[in-house]
Recover the amino acids of this structure.
């Protein structure tokens, strides 16, 4: 019985073995093809910007200081003053109402507005005020009257016949009383301390610096002052250098008792002109900056005497 069961078990095992050999081997399971996802670039929309609002440019405020100086062109122009600084006083005398109205503008100016101006415009203001006031004084006294006694000392057309021209004629500027002498002393000599200003101050005379036929203004002041100095020093009435006679003649304006001492602070030097007194040293040191090189060289190292010319007070007409 046992053998019979063993035989049956053996036959069953063989049958299973044969069945397994006849089966077709199974195909490997194919993995699904995974294609990479198509990533489309993100659409970046430009930011929405509002078109800039273009504001119309704000017109610059009219500079009051420039406007003020420009008012002076009604008198300081070529209708009355030629390129040599000579004045047509006959025509100017007929324009005295306009001249008075212009000078009244100097009195109306608010002091706080003046204080806000640059230094250059303040200098221009006082130069224009001084020169216009001097024109008015002469126009009011034109033609100049003289006495026989005074003609012994000065020609009949000399402005010295107008008594107290610098000290007695009073006027108002910014509601303050002034004379020509006070403006000269207080502003031109002390406050501003620039010797070039002295060549822009009219003396209304033949030997003085030429009166400019345009107003002074802050924007052009440096150029105007430089031009005034050069013009004046080119005149033989201001400077005469005689190399043959070894003599240098200076305008009486440069005398220490007049304007000469005003050059000392800025131009006095102990390196040059050692045989001259300090006031003359300073004046010569100033002058050499404005004359041709050969003349400057003669002044620096030459041997010469310095003298002052007589001043011609005849009116600049």
């Amino acid at each position: 019985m046992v053998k019979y069961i063993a035989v049956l078990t053996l036959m069953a095992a063989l049958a299973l073995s044969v069945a397994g050999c006849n089966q077709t081997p199974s195909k490997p399971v194919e993995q699904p093809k995974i294609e990479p996802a198509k990533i489309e670039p993100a659409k970046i929309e430009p930011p929405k910007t509002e078109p800039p609002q273009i504001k119309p440019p704000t017109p610059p405020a009219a500079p009051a200081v420039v406007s003020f100086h420009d008012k002076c062109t009604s008198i300081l122009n070529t209708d009355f003053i030629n390129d040599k600084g000579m004045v047509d006083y006959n025509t100017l005398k007929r324009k005295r109402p306009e001249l008075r109205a212009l000078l009244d503008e100097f009195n109306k100016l608010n002091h706080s507005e003046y204080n806000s101006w640059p230094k250059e415009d303040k200098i221009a203001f006082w130069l224009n005020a001084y020169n216009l006031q001097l024109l008015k004084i002469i126009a009011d006294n034109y033609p100049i009257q003289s006495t026989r006694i005074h003609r012994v000392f000065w020609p009949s057309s000399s402005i010295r016949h107008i008594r107290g021209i610098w000290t007695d004629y009073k006027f108002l500027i910014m509601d303050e009383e002034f004379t020509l002498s006070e403006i000269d002393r207080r502003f031109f000599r002390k406050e501003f301390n620039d010797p070039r200003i002295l060549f822009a101050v009219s003396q209304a005379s033949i030997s003085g610096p030429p009166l400019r036929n345009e107003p002074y203004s802050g924007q052009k002041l440096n150029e105007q002052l430089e031009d005034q100095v050069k013009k004046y020093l080119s005149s033989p009435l201001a400077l005469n250098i005689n190399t043959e006679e070894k003599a240098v003649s200076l305008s009486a304006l440069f005398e220490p008792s007049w304007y000469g001492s005003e050059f000392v602070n800025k131009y006095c030097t102990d390196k040059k002109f050692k045989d001259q007194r300090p006031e003359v040293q300073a004046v010569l040191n100033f002058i050499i900056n404005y004359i041709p090189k050969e003349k400057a060289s003669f002044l620096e190292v030459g041997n010469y005497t310095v003298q002052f010319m007589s001043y011609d007070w005849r009116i600049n007409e």
In short: The longest strand covers residues 239-242.
